[in-house]
From TrEMBL:
<comment type="similarity">
    <text>Belongs to the oleosin family.</text>
</comment>
<dbReference type="GO" id="GO:0012511">
    <property type="term" value="C:monolayer-surrounded lipid storage body"/>
</dbReference>
<protein>
    <submittedName>
        <fullName>Oleosin family protein</fullName>
    </submittedName>
</protein>
<keyword id="KW-0472">Membrane</keyword>
<feature type="transmembrane region" description="Helical">
    <location>
        <begin position="81"/>
        <end position="106"/>
    </location>
</feature>
<dbReference type="GO" id="GO:0048608">
    <property type="term" value="P:reproductive structure development"/>
</dbReference>
<dbReference type="GO" id="GO:0009791">
    <property type="term" value="P:post-embryonic development"/>
</dbReference>
<dbReference type="GO" id="GO:0019915">
    <property type="term" value="P:lipid storage"/>
</dbReference>
<dbReference type="Pfam" id="PF01277">
    <property type="entry name" value="Oleosin"/>
</dbReference>
<dbReference type="InterPro" id="IPR000136">
    <property type="entry name" value="Oleosin"/>
</dbReference>
<keyword id="KW-1133">Transmembrane helix</keyword>
<feature type="transmembrane region" description="Helical">
    <location>
        <begin position="55"/>
        <end position="75"/>
    </location>
</feature>
<keyword id="KW-0551">Lipid droplet</keyword>
<dbReference type="GO" id="GO:0016020">
    <property type="term" value="C:membrane"/>
</dbReference>
<keyword id="KW-0812">Transmembrane</keyword>
Length: 156
């Protein structure tokens, strides 16, 4: 026979009512505010995107005849502006590179060890070693070739 305590325990093991489940899985106020802000911001951005695309297409439709009629003026002006701006940017870039290179060389020759100076020292030592080896090789085989020339032309 089931007693009252058994009946009470059996009642507690049943799943909670639907409202308690909803409360357990519901958002707290901070999460709700974040979700609301996200939805409102997304909607505003979507509306602004639509307006921007619409205005762009309408202005393209409206201004295309004017652009086509005045293109003999705009194409040379655009080309000239492009060349001038590209030249200005390249001159400024070259000037900055020269200033950087002169500053780096000044620091290097003053012994301040700028960034990359260890690589320059290593490359310089490798070049000097290679030049020394080439000189020795030329010395060694230069005499060999001179002897061969004398053998080929004994009267020379």
């Amino acid at each position: 026979m089931a007693t009252i305590s058994d009946h009470h325990r059996h009642h507690q093991q049943q799943p909670p009512p639907i409202m308690q489940r909803l409360r357990h899985h519901s958002l707290n106020s901070t999460q709700l505010m974040g979700l609301t802000t996200l939805i409102i911001s997304g909607a505003i951005l979507l509306i602004l995107t639509g307006i921007t695309i619409t205005i762009t297409l309408l202005s393209l439709i409206f201004f295309t005849p004017i652009i086509i009629l005045t293109s003999p003026i705009w194409v040379p002006i655009g080309t000239l502006l492009f060349v001038l701006i590209a030249g200005f940017v390249s001159v400024c870039g070259s000037g900055l590179f020269v200033v950087f290179a002169v500053t780096w060389m000044y620091k290097y020759f003053k012994g301040l060890h700028p960034v990359g100076s260890d690589r320059v020292d290593y490359a310089r030592s490798r070049i000097a070693d290679t030049a020394s080896h080439v000189k020795d090789y030329a010395w060694e085989y230069g005499g060999y070739f001179q002897g061969k020339v004398k053998d080929a032309a004994p009267g020379a």
